[in-house]
Amino acid sequence: MSGTVTPALLEQAAHKLKRAQRILVVTGAGISAESGIPTFRGSGGLWEGFRAEDLATPAAFKRMPGRVWKWYRWRRQIVLAAQPNPGHLALATLEKQLPFVEIVTQNVDGLHGRAGSQRLIELHGNIHRARCTDCHQVSSLPEADVAEGEQLPECWKCGGLLRPHILWFGEHYWPGTMDVAMEAGVQASVILVVGTSAQVYAPVGLVLEAQELGAFVIDVNPEETHFSRQADIFLQGTSGTLLPQLSTFLLSLEEPQV
Ligand code: OAD
Ligand code: ZN
Questions:
Q1: How far is the CA of 78 from the centre of ligand 2 (A)?
Q2: pTM value?
Q3: CA-to-CA distance for 157 and 153, rounded, in angstroms?
Q4: Cα(228)–Cα(75) distance, rounded to whole angstroms?
Q5: 39 pocket-lining for ligand 1 (C-beta < 6 Å)
Q6: Which among 85, 97, 98, 212 is least surrounded, fewest beta carbons within 10 Å?
Q7: Which residues pair with 90 in a beta bridge?
């Protein structure tokens, strides 16, 4: 599909959303870019010479747990200082405007929840939570834990080493999480994909399977990706601009037709 966003294309997308019984929104790092949170791939994706793929793995944590914690503390600091942007807020508004909107996010920053979205599946976990490597207890991290440093946090229950409660490269999805996400895809008649490079297999599979079952796919991204080429509508631009425009179009569709 062409990447030019005309008002007619936006209106077509809004019509599709308006008529859908169930909508699934699949988001990636791009939706938080306009909140100042760096994406994984592309410029600015490096940290102290490491790629995300070198730090977000069980092997990296085993080898250098302090370094991995330092990276997550740095990322948490950015997230805590950030605010949901107009893209997150527009999605929370869509949930109120339409009968059933659900979000599956690959992001761990918690910004969808802070923007007010209620039906939310955080596929890769949440940066504000940790899990004990011994007893597996999940707990919330205190805000004060964001101080720079490589010290290792311990479990309040058993004293074991805590790790971020985040899905790392090479790990399996938590039992049930992917099933719930796949079911959301199967049930949806429209899938709105926002700000993902379509490099991680599971979310890509979810969208493609839903599309095979007949779902209409709309992709929002400033860059062309595998998804944008497969999408029924490609809205090429940033989510902070295009999602509020979609929401406004939806409002105009609610006006009585003459
Ligand atoms: P990526 O960093 O791979 O891709 C970000 C996408 O957002 C790119 O396609 C950009 O073009 C797009 N983008 C940038 N700015 C945007 C904007 N303002 N509005 C809309 N889109 C914008 O991030 P993800 O696809 O989310 O996994 O990466 C998926 C997963 O890979 C992450 O969840 C993470 C990572 O490894 C884990 O940590 C398990
Ligand atoms: Zn423990």
A1: 27
A2: 0.92
A3: 12
A4: 28
A5: yes
A6: 212
A7: none
